[in-house]
């Protein structure tokens, strides 16, 4: 779990006092990985840059990649005499995962691709801080850093992955475009549906999942896009992330990973594209999802897979089926009897 967290509108102003005791010396900088959307934005003025500290803007048009992590690690190793005091990620799930992975690869040898899987990271990473600027993924609280690798999209799941410190400031999510607010928010909603309807469910996951679900309903069925909703969605994301920490996601994520791997469809919208066709698996959850789309006037694109050839389709099906824990959570130990490549292809063809 994340050992330290501050919360509240404006709490980013505490960053200086949070970082000060963690600064090893004036030559050991803090490295800020910042979503390029904030270039020239007033938010940068709130970052307490001192001494050798460095801001690196990251374009998030594509989701983070293992080779991108390797390049950033090489850059930090080549450009600074001292090992950095810490890595700070300021942005959405893409940046948060990138920051976690860079912190781990600064102290663990090899490529980030070597650590895609479960418990492969052996040493603690550099001190790392997560500051989310959009709510939903739960990446601020989770034990994984999801990366696209040469062979798969899979997280670096380990006890060393979670942030050492998280700063939850609901003011930072104010400028998120409406459609993205919805897609990333739905990632949280779908985490809840998959966790609460999964066979891995237990009292720990249920307690967090139910709270996150309640908050998602308040935000997306009854709320306006105001500070109250931003506060609620920030905490929904946190609780949703905690819920899947001790359970798993399910069918929507398995299929969404295939879409993302082949077509580069981004996580939030990818989940939505898949989820609307999953009423056989999650009837109540999908019905409510349609209600939320309607209320927020979201019209999802169609025919995403219409140009996919047979080889591409086989790749997507293979990626989706390879995520065995997700299927087992969704359908139980005998999931292989219930899911065929044809069934998955049929779902992809609808998207
Ligand atoms: P994102 O980080 O890719 O950001 C989405 C878009 O929103 C970007 O264009 C970004 O520039 C913009 N944005 C973010 N904050 C903004 C702000 N305050 N104002 C204006 N624009 C803003 O999207 P995401 O949905 O947060 O994250 C998706 C990533 O998270 C995927 O790579 C996915 O694999 C990963 N993920 C990780 C976990 C985990 O537990 N580690 C869980 C779910 C998803
Ligand atoms: Zn997700």
UniProtKB/TrEMBL annotation:
Position of the signal peptide: none
Residue ranges of every copy of the Alcohol dehydrogenase iron-type/glycerol dehydrogenase GldA domain listed in the record: 4-170
Keywords: Oxidoreductase
InterPro entries: ADH_Fe/GldA, ADH_Fe_C, Alcohol_dehydrogenase_Fe
Pfam family, one: Fe-ADH
Ranges where the Fe-containing alcohol dehydrogenase-like C-terminal domain occurs: 183-284
Single GO MF descriptor: metal ion binding
PANTHER family per the UniProt record, alphabetical: 3-DEOXY-ALPHA-D-MANNO-OCTULOSONATE 8-OXIDASE, ALCOHOL DEHYDROGENASE
Protein name: Alcohol dehydrogenase
Organism the protein comes from: Sediminicola luteus
Classification of source organism: Bacteria, Pseudomonadati, Bacteroidota, Flavobacteriia, Flavobacteriales
């Amino acid at each position: 779990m994340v050992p330290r967290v501050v919360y509240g509108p404006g709490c980013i102003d505490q960053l200086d006092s949070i970082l000060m005791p963690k600064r090893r010396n004036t030559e050991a900088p803090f490295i800020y990985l910042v979503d390029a959307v904030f270039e020239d934005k007033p938010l940068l003025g709130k970052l307490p840059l001192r001494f050798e500290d460095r801001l690196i803007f990251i374009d998030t048009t594509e989701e983070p990649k293992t080779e991108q992590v390797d390049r950033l690690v090489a850059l930090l190793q080549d450009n600074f005499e001292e090992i950095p005091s810490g890595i700070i990620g300021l942005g959405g799930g893409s940046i948060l995962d990138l920051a976690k992975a860079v912190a781990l690869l600064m102290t663990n040898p090899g490529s980030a691709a070597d650590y895609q899987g479960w418990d492969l990271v052996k040493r603690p990473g550099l001190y790392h801080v997560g500051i989310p600027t959009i709510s939903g993924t739960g990446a601020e609280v989770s034990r994984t850093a999801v990366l696209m690798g040469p062979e798969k999209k899979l997280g670096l799941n380990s006890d060393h992955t979670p942030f050492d410190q998280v700063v939850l400031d609901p003011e930072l999510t104010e400028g998120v475009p409406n459609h993205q607010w919805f897609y990333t928010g739905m990632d949280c909603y779908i985490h809840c549906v998959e966790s609460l309807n999964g066979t891995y469910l237990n009292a720990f996951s249920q307690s967090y999942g139910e709270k996150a679900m309640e908050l998602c309903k308040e935000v997306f069925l009854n709320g306006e896009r105001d500070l109250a909703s931003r506060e609620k969605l920030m905490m929904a994301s946190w609780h949703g992330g905690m819920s899947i920490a001790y359970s798993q996601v399910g069918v929507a994520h398995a299929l969404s990973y295939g879409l993302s791997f082949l077509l580069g469809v981004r996580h939030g919208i990818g989940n939505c594209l898949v989820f609307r066709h999953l009423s056989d698996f999650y009837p109540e959850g999908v019905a409510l999802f349609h209600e939320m789309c309607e209320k927020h006037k979201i019209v999802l694109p169609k025919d995403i897979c219409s140009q996919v050839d047979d080889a591409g389709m086989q790749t997507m099906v293979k990626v989706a089926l390879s995520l065995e824990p997700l299927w087992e959570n969704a359908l139980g130990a005998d999931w292989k009897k219930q899911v065929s490549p044809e069934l998955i292809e049929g779902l992809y063809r609808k998207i």
